[in-house]
Amino acid sequence: EKKYLICEETYGFVGGKNFRTEDIPETPWIRHEISGTRIQSRKFLNEWWKDRFGEAFHSETISVNSIEAVVNLVARGFGWAVLPEVHTKNREDLRFFPITKKDGSGFRRNTWLLCKNKSVKKEVVRMFMECILRKG
């Protein structure tokens, strides 16, 4: 019943120190895969690829179920990934390239805090929300 935007994150290509976006078609995609959960990176990648090449995305893919595994494989040069920029902070062994649409706008992931009106009446919920919204 209530919806609060906590943060927005830029999505982009992440690769090792020597990675270039020109390497994407010949380098494996390291994908974060969680069963039962829709991963945004595939959506962003498909749209970007179709805009650039006019065809459906196709690439060799390595699937793992941990963001840490994705980041470590990418840092070691086994491939590239599509991740929010936050995963590259304080990592000198990674390069980040924002994914942009033809119009120049970027792909972003929004994180929302959702709650019911009756829940906000509970003090513990209200305190939690205040804490989260102050930091957001």
**Strand percentage, roughly?**
25-35%
Estimate the global geometry from the Cα principal axes.
Answer: elongated
Low-confidence stretches: none
Report the strand count.
6
Oligomer: single chain
Distance between the termini: 20 Å
Specify Rg, calculated over alpha carbons: 18 Å
- Which class best fits the helix and strand makeup? alpha+beta
**How confident overall, as mean pLDDT?**
86
Instruction: Summarize the biggest pleated sheet.
Output: 4 strands, antiparallel
Proportion of helical residues: 25-40%
Order of helices and strands: EEHEHEEEHH
Number of helices: 4
What does this structure look like?
- This protein is of the alpha+beta class.
- It contains 4 helices and 6 strands.
- It has helices at 40-53, 67-75, 117-120, 123-135, and strands spanning 2-16, 29-32, 61-64, 81-84, 94-98, 108-115.
- Strand 2 (29-32), helix 1 and strand 3 form a beta-alpha-beta unit.
- The longest helix is centred in the middle third of the chain and has 14 residues, at 40-53.
- The radius of gyration is 18 Å and the shape is elongated.
Annotation keywords:
alpha+beta, 136 residues, four-stranded antiparallel beta sheet, 4 helices
Provide a compact summary of the structure.
With 136 residues, the protein is an alpha+beta fold.
